[in-house]
Amino acid sequence: MSELNSLTPKQTVQKLDQYIIGQDDAKRSVAIALRNRWRRQQVQPPLREEIAPKNIIMIGPTGVGKTEIARRLANLAQSPFIKVEASKFTEVGYVGRDVESMVRDLLQLAINMVNKEEEKGVTAKAAVAAEERLLDLLLPPRPKQESAKPDTSGLADHAIPLSYNDAFGKETASLPSSTDEAAAKQQTDSVEKTREKLRRMLHSGELDNRTVELSVATPKNQGPIVEIFSASGMEDMQSSLQDAFSKIFPGQKHERKLKVPDALEYLKKEEAQRLVDTESVTEKAIRKTEQAGIIFLDEIDKIASRSGTGSGSPDVSREGVQRDLLPIVEGSTVTTKYGPVRTDHILFIASGAFYTNKPSDLAPELQGRFPIRVNLNPLGQEEFFRILTEPENALIKQYTALMATEGIDLKFEEEAIQEMARIAVEVNKKTENIGARRLHTVIERVLDELSFDATERDERTFVVTSEYVQKQLVDISDNEDLSRYIL
């Protein structure tokens, strides 16, 4: 949570503005929720444990930035973040995934995050160890000490008399052993000189084209695959069984020839994994999940029961999912293969279009666990123009960079961008409104010919004008049945 210290709500909104256009109310709400997490960490226990996160529900049509806001928020907070679709869960007792699986998935993601952080901390040690192992592979095997000793197998018939020491003196008798020591020392010095020479060559890149043979571990999942098709709640059992089989059938190693740089990278990763404390990673990941985890529940409107429906309708299953979801959002303990995880302080952000129903159709208890409701506004031509040009990852910037790889300088006139925004709004009105996602389809259609012929084109500069946009999209602009052109 140290990353949150420097992020005030205003700073969070400013960072979100770099990627998301409009939706100021939603940005403000998530920025406050993020800051409240840091504030809670400053409160002394036991009051700290009593402060629950204020979960948020975003209401708005598709393609207006609900998912993007939650995803960017998680990136800013460096928090474990997972996006799940509420409509994919089933009530306990039915075949399918249960709601607890999202907590297990979140923990697994946190373990991966912590593991990478821990590996970064041992990078220097891992690099040194990997270099030594690589030098061992590059050096020829040392001759055995026994081979340097004289062959005494034929001395049985000419045994040395017992008076050998008396005849030549004790100092003379010790000469053979001192000679062996000197030879061994000379050999060791020679090996060290060769090793240091190889080390210098490795650092200068002279060995980059050389190949070494390395023992590479095969994936652990080469053993029997156990998959359980049963009622929900069995995913953890399946995972435990697979882990058990991976221990019974451990991954074997096979010899593989690699270039020196590739072998060095592989050895660095292997050494880093060896230096990381697995138990410490698990403990930190569980704590990170409980204190900083964010779960984004998309399509929550799909599990809302419409008022006035009969008991025999599919809405009964939806109500069951809500009942199963309620204790997770309220705060409960979920059992995982790494240990129990409490959900009391996980931040839940739900979203839905609510076209045919409304948030009040959710169970009252579930509504109470999402005290903050934010309405996101539909996007118009002005917002589409800004989306195409302003964000750090704007579509115009993306396609300009893509064409630059072909040596083409792609340029867009402002009128052309305005025309693409206008047509996108028009198509959304005449067909299904999918929000800003429509811009992907429009710009793909505009640059279709250029993308296909980019490699063979002689002209290195291509300017997109409003006339060119209209020419490329004439079928769409003039035809009322737009579904055959843009889905």
How would you describe this protein?
With 487 residues, the protein is of the alpha/beta class. It folds into 3 domains: 2-120 and 285-375, Rossmann fold (3-Layer(aba) Sandwich); 123-140 and 168-275, no CATH class; 381-484, Helicase, Ruva Protein, domain 3 (Orthogonal Bundle), CATH 1.10.8.60. 51% of the residues lie in helices and 11% in strands. The protein has 21 helices and 11 strands. The chain has helices at 9-17, 24-42, 47-50, 66-77, 101-121, 123-138, 164-168, 170-173, 175-204, 235-248, 260-275, 278-292, 315-330, 364-368, 381-389, 395-404, 414-430, 437-446, 448-453, 466-472, 474-478, and strands at 56-59, 81-85, 211-217, 253-259, 294-298, 333-336, 339-342, 347-352, 372-375, 409-412, 461-464. The strands form 4 sheets. The protein has a 5-stranded parallel β-sheet, sandwiched between helices. The protein has a two-stranded antiparallel ribbon with strand order 3-4. Strand 6 (333-336) and strand 7 form a beta hairpin. Helix 6 (123-138) packs across helix 11 (260-275) and helix 15 packs across helix 17 (414-430). It starts with 8 loop residues before the first helix and ends in a 9-residue tail after the last helix.
Radius of gyration equals 33 Å
Total helical segments: 21
CATH topology of the largest domain: Rossmann fold
Strand tally is: 11
Low-confidence stretches: 145-175, 221-232, 308-314, 481-487
Helix content: 40-55%
CATH architecture of the largest domain: 3-Layer(aba) Sandwich
Q: How confident overall, as mean pLDDT?
A: 80
Strand content: 5-15%
At the first level of CATH, the class of the largest domain is Alpha Beta
- End-to-end CA span: 43 Å
| Strand order of the biggest β-sheet | 2-5-8-1-9
Main β sheet profile: 5 strands, parallel
Q: Quick one: overall form?
A: flat
The number of domains is 3
CATH superfamily of the largest domain: P-loop containing nucleotide triphosphate hydrolases
- What structural category characterises the helix and strand content? alpha/beta
